[in-house]
Amino acid sequence: MSSETTPIATSARPLETPQLLTDPFLQAPGPDSVRVVWFTEFAGDRHQVTWGDRLQHRVLANSTRLSHTREDGRSNLPPAVAARQPEGTTVWARPIWRHEAIVAGLEPGQRVPYRVASWLGNRVVESQTFTLAAQAPPGQPLRILLTSDHQLKPMVAANLQQVAQTIGAIDGVLLAGDLVNVPDRASEWFDDAMGGAFFPCLQGRAVRSLHGTVYRGGALIQHAPLFTALGNHEVMGRLGQATDLNGEFNDAIPRWAAQQLAGDRPLSATELLDRSFNTHTYDQILTPLGEPGRHYYATSLGDVRLVVLSVAQAWRSPMLTGDRPGRFREGQPADSQSWGWGQHIFESIAPGSPQDQWLQAELASPAFRQARYRVVMLHHPPHTLGDNSVPPFTDPVQAIDRNATGQITAVRYSYPRDRDWIAQHLSPLLEAAGTDLVLYGHSHLWNRFQTGRTHYLETSNVGNSYGAAWGDRVRPGLPPAGSGFDRPDYVPLGDPNGLEPIAPTLAPDRDPATGEPLPYLASNEISAFSILDTATGQVTSYRVDPRQPDRPAEPFDRFTLGGP
Ligand SMILES: [Fe+2]
Fold it and tell me: Would you state the pLDDT for residue 241?
């Protein structure tokens, strides 16, 4: 029942009183089943879910230890956790166990109580009682939260608290990537001392102070299944090369580059992951819904066919000086071991790639074609006013300068727009298939677009914003004219892929000078969330003001899915 995959760090102290590290949450609903997942800091002796109207059914959990969860000097640890740091370490393994039980035999549309319990010797710790349900059948009206880019940002707890207070019970959460900042840092998921870690915010157990109010987040995923897309913040880089976890996070290089650096000997599968990038912690925390090693999948909930894609690339600094690997150049051109290889793509969506072939088959399937609502979720924005749609989403083109003796003097990268795999290939494909909604994140703002039947929505101003490239605010990070790195492919204002942003229909922000509605929300005072109501097909976006904790979230935009 319980298995340990790696030894416990030597000075980890036994926990005196067993506690759950999280409340349980729901994953991977099937026609008559759903998975219940929770975490502890002890292996324990038995872990179980009891469920049913009288909690009369019982099912045991399968338990595994997370293999790569660690802490370091940049962790924000509660004192009791910090006290467990082994002496003399700077990065240390933090043992955490995941428990997953499959609750099966559920009736479609039936919602029943459940709770979980974990035993450590003769001591037991139980959760409160929550409710679960199998996959919602077609025709069942659902309210689905659309969100992304939590990353422990300041307003997330207030945002999710207002989801619970204003909307009440929800039936599903779609999270378009970037759940935390550094995925192997355990405290970012479970107990960051600032009070705004990932699970506490989504489970109503945050303790995040903002403007004199302590926000608790919302108890959402104990009752509603969570579906996520892979963002760039779900990916860790090369193991053991950096001195802390942030350095390791920033040190992802392409698989082919890792093999090239290794020479003629073919790397094993494990070596290849260790020497390029990996998603171990993300894959172990969330129940994988795709094929092993793939982060794209499709599922149905109620009248929604949900297609989730893996569209993310390594983020690199736009700095044109310094010795760090950058977006446009390598800082240490003579040393290929330290190259970052630009903003390389983690999982290809290029024409003919495995993901593309899978997607084409899914878009042609009866499940997609016959769905009332066709929703596609990915991380990288197809259309946005945010910073992160530039440069184009494509494989970096490398150019190497050498001196007269053949030594490398500069390594440069460009990103040709005519090879932007999202704009040139993916968006036309999704639009031709009659996709109703494309949901994404990455730029930390709210904006939306429409072409034909297809709506594009970025509702990622959840915890903070990085601003909108609109009016006189050009995108930061673009190479200046005449720098040798500037290209007409890099668009300083508006949507680089040519759509006009749509101003919020209900209560837009206004330009202070002209009074004109602003076609975005980009704020570090106000956050946003969106709800898809499948009874009506309406997508309503709400604004949350954490300075006014008693004021309900206010709808500021609404549009309706479905078309000819
Ligand atoms: Fe991102």
Answer: 81
Q: Which residues surround ligand 1, an ion (CB under 5 A)?
A: 178, 231-232, 442
Between the CA of 445 and the centroid of ligand 1 the distance, in Å, is 12
Per-residue pLDDT band for 240 (boundaries 50, 70, 90) equals: confident
Flag whether pLDDT at 5 surpasses 80. Answer: no
Q: Is the dihedral of CA 300, 301, 305, 307 positive or negative?
A: negative
pLDDT above 70 covers a percentage of the chain that reads: 97
Q: What local confidence, expressed as pLDDT, does residue 282 receive?
A: 98
CA of 460 to the centre of ligand 1 (A): 10
CA of 391 to the centre of ligand 1 (A): 14
As a three-state string, the secondary structure of 143-161 is EEEEECCCCCCCCHHHHHH
**What's the confidence (pLDDT) of residue 11?**
38
Separation of CA 313 and ligand 1 centre (Å): 8
In angstroms, the CA 146 to CA 100 distance is: 25
**Ligand 1 centre and the CA of 290: distance in Å?**
20
DSSP H helix total and E strand total for the chain: 11, 27
Residue-level pLDDT at 15: 52
Q: What is the DSSP letter of 163?
A: I
In angstroms, how far is the first alpha carbon of the chain from the final one?
Answer: 52
Total residue length of the chain: 564
Ramachandran angles phi, psi of 465, nearest 5° = -140, 155
Average pLDDT over residues 318-323: 94
Query: Ligand 1 centre from 312 Cα, in Å?
Result: 7
Rg (CA), the chain: 23
